[in-house]
Amino acid sequence: MNHEPEPEPEPKFEPEPRFESKPKPKREGFSLISGEDVSAYSPEVEFTPWHSSKHALVGVIVLVVLVIAGVVGLHVWNNRSVDVMVNESSVSIKVGSSLDDLVSTAGLQLTPGNFMSVGGNVITEGGGDPYEASLNGVSLTQDQIGTTRVSDGQSYEFSNGSDTTEGYEVQLVDVQPKLEVQGTAGAITYVAQWGKVGQKHVNVGTTSGETVDVDVVTEAQDAIIVKHNFNFKDGRKLIALTFDDGPSKYTQQYLDILGQYGAKATFFNLGQSAETYPDLEKACISAGCQVASHTYDHQQLTALSGDDVYSEITKAFASINSASGTSTTIIRPPYGSFTDDTWLLTQGSISASFIWNIDSEDWRLPGSSAIVSNVVNNAYSGAIILMHDGGGNRDEDVEALPQIIQALQNDGYTFVTLDELMAADDSIPSDIASGNATMPSDCVWPTELAA
Ligand SMILES: [Zn+2]
């Protein structure tokens, strides 16, 4: 009999529990069969019963729902609309909005300020603060305006933006002295005070470069020139003869006549001629007379550039000082041409400039008697008389000079040099009266007239 073996029954498939897809780590010595009652193996075995997993699932779902609800609720809260007062009108706006948004939502038309220079000029129109704001009555800075966020119940006031000013750097700078002119006219214009540099703090705009005064550290000392006439009314009878354009072939004759009468005079010489006749320069000094400058080669100083004025003056002083063995810083400008602006160009090289009170008009060659009367009839104590040494035929002067001296000496006059005339006048500073004052080394000469 063919006896086929009975097929073995199919093993029954026990499904794995759904919520135990991941096997728990095995404990040593125990096998873990999920979903079975394993209490027979060991009461200490961990397991998750089927009915506990269902409770966990519900819990998770509730949690998720709560979280979602919370997130949604927070979102709604954060995006809620709030009412704030803007310039006394109520405006609804999303909470947390910026003030820019609030201004825009409120429809305010605000004019920005300008960006200004330290000197008060507009650098950029509209480049200042966009607007100003206060919150609940308290002004906000621009930084606070940028960080403030709208929240319920606030009250804002907005207004046009203010101007802002550029940054600046404080610098210490020199202040140059100016030239102050005192008096309107006179035979002498002398330096009454030399100039000194001062210092001040200024703000220099970092954008504009403009400079604005802050404070004075040291006052500048203006230079002062004074126009003055000598006029002695105390009984002294002093008078000053002056000869221009020498030295010349006439100089010695003049010196001889002066010596004969014990009179002194001042010779305004050309530097060029002093180089030609150095002995005559020395002879003038030996005779007790004074030599001073009439420029180097008779230039009209008012027609020259600044550099030429300076060189014409200083070159003549150097020649005359070298030839005479003395020193002078006094000048008579050719043609009497010397203005306040010319003074600015001297760089402090001269101490006094002389013209005259009485013109002998010898240059017209009017005859010696006319020259005598032109002088004698106009004489007064302190007067400066103009005659000439070089520049043409001077025979009339040589003939007139003794008569002039005699007439005025008979009238009680003493013929003095300009140094002596200055020394006789208390208003002239003693250094200037020396005739050779130079600018002190700590002083400077101005290049601008005082206002
Ligand atoms: Zn001259």
CATH superfamily of the largest domain, by name, is: Glycoside hydrolase/deacetylase
State the major sheet. Answer: 6 strands, parallel
Architecture per CATH nomenclature, i.e. the level-2 architecture of the largest domain: Alpha-Beta Barrel
Estimated helix fraction: 25-40%
* Percent range for β-strand residues: 15-25%
How many domains, as an integer?
3
Written description of the protein model:
The structure is a single chain. Helix 4 (251-261) links the parallel strand 15 and strand 16. 28% of the residues lie in helices and 23% in strands. The termini are far apart. The chain has three domains: 86-165, Ubiquitin-like (UB roll) (Roll), CATH 3.10.20; 168-225, no CATH class; 227-433, Alpha-Beta Barrel (TIM Barrel), CATH 3.20.20. The strands form five sheets. Strands 15, 16, 17, 20, 21 and 22 form a six-stranded parallel beta sheet that branches. It has a five-stranded mixed beta sheet with strand order 2-1-7-5-6, with helices on one face. A five-stranded mixed beta sheet has the order 10-14-11-19-18, with no helix packed on it. With 451 residues, it is of the alpha/beta class. The model is unreliable at 19-36 (pLDDT under 50). Zinc ion binds at residues 244-245, 294, 298, 334.
